[in-house]
Write a structure and sequence with these properties.
- This protein is an alpha+beta fold and 421 residues long.
- The chain is built from ten helices and 18 strands.
- Helix 3 packs antiparallel against helix 5.
Length: 421
């Protein structure tokens, strides 16, 4: 065991094992012996050639790295617990997230499907919104700094971040950031802004869709040259996300998508094409009549129930067979779908707003569902380990290990972690 592995920081944080190394130091698995919990500890190494003044700058940057995310209390940004100076160098203590990075997922599985990338993009936009409102620019958003913990997407590593109230610590002539993901104006020497973070988001989502960033070349100089001189290549796998990606990768920051417009375009892409409203036609009225007949005979057998669901999915408007309130406020609820007793998880839509995300955790996350169900649709899962998110608990009926869960309030989000092992 090395000396570092025997080290206890600030009399409470014990180093357990090395997780990985980077250009600036090592990340350790640690244990907080005071609170008895696992932590991640980032050990930052100072280059030996640094002068005393440069060491002071390095320490200030380290404290800034800890303070930046510590100010940002949100599900999508890694939580920082503490910063310690030990053995002449700084250590940052953070929450332990046992999950692969987006970079690792791309390397293992190749390009991701567009719906999964849309989910990642929406979470990162939320994280950037929180940071930017606090006056903090990340400056190094890239796939290796994005962790995927089931449905949770976490932005990490604020080492290059700065706030509007702090002095810049970048020395003249030093390039900061990752060339394949840096915005053109920052590569040209201009100050990083929230708009440059949005460029980096676009490059990150492009890499998730295509398997590589848009301007990556064989070396740093070639990458920067392509960034400065070549047109942004159109993504081939983006589908409905193409307007989001191309808008974020607009080289002129004044024409680049703003945060609000990026959110709007992304949510439009996630919702899919919407048909315009139209007045009921004779065919539509006939479908309503059939639906009413189906509701009357639903108690006669499962065939009638299937008929109702099929008619409702074709209907251009709300179906009269959907769960509705009586004058006294009571509701009509269908019987549990088959397979509930033997399934790990069953979800059935009470309304057309039943949006779900279901995945199998592990080194390579497997996404089983990322969709919005139509009223009456059901999904059944047999896997022993699952992570599930119900985005509107009032819109879905949920059974976990055969037990029905109580319905939530409109707009309430519920998370389920299942483990039958």
């Amino acid at each position: 065991m090395s000396q570092s592995e025997r080290l206890v920081l600030a009399t409470r944080y014990r180093l357990v094992s090395e997780i990985g190394q980077g250009a600036n130091g090592t990340v350790w698995r640690g244990h907080d012996e005071l609170l008895d919990r696992a932590v991640a500890i980032k050990e930052l190494r100072l280059p030996e050639e640094l002068s005393e003044d440069d060491r002071v700058v390095f320490y200030r940057r380290t404290l800034r790295e800890a303070r930046a995310p510590a100010q940002l209390r949100t599900h999508s940004i890694v939580e920082v617990y503490d910063v310690v100076i030990e053995q002449g160098r700084p250590w940052i203590v953070m929450e332990m997230i046992e999950a692969p990075s987006l970079e690792q997922l791309i390397e293992r599985s190749g390009p991701l499907p567009a719906d999964r990338v849309a989910h990642i993009g929406r979470a990162l936009l939320e994280a950037l919104s929180t940071a930017h409102k606090a006056g903090i620019v990340h400056r190094d958003l890239k796939p290796s700094n994005v962790l995927l913990d089931g449905e949770r997407v976490v932005l990490t590593d604020f080492g290059l971040a700065f706030s509007s109230g702090s002095a810049s610590l970048t020395k003249t002539g030093h390039f900061m950031g990752s060339p394949a993901y840096v915005a053109p104006e920052v590569a040209a020497g201009e100050k990083a802004t929230p708009r440059s973070d949005l460029w980096s988001l676009g490059a990150t989502l492009y890499a998730a869709l295509e398997g590589r960033p848009p301007f990556e070349r064989e070396n740093v100089m070639a990458t920067l040259s392509a960034l400065a001189n070549e047109s942004t290549p159109a993504p081939q796998n983006a589908g409905a996300l193409a307007p989001v990606i191309t808008g974020l990768l607009e080289k002129n920051p004044t024409r680049r998508l703003s945060h609000a417009r990026a959110v709007d375009r992304l949510e439009r892409a996630m919702a899919g094409p919407r048909s315009g409203r139209r007045a009921p036609t004779p065919r539509y009225r006939l479908m309503v009549v059939i639906g009413l007949i189906g509701a009357t005979v639903a108690s006669c057998g499962i065939g009638a129930t299937a008929l109702i669901v099929g008619m409702m999915r074709e209907s251009p408007g709300p179906s009269p067979t959907a769960t509705s309130s009586s004058p006294t406020g009571s509701t009509t609820q269908a019987a549990a779908p088959p397979g509930v007793a033997t399934s790990t998880l069953v979800v059935r839509a009470r309304t057309d707003a039943c949006k779900i995300f279901v995945s199998v955790p592990g080194d390579a996350i497997t996404v089983l569902s990322d969709e919005t169900l139509h009223h009456g649709d059901a999904r059944q899962y047999e896997q022993p380990r699952l992570n599930a998110v119900i985005y509107d608990a009032s819109a879905c009926d949920v059974w976990v290990n055969g037990q029905e869960k109580p319905a939530g309030k409109p707009g309430e989000r519920k998370n389920y972690t299942l483990n039958k092992d």
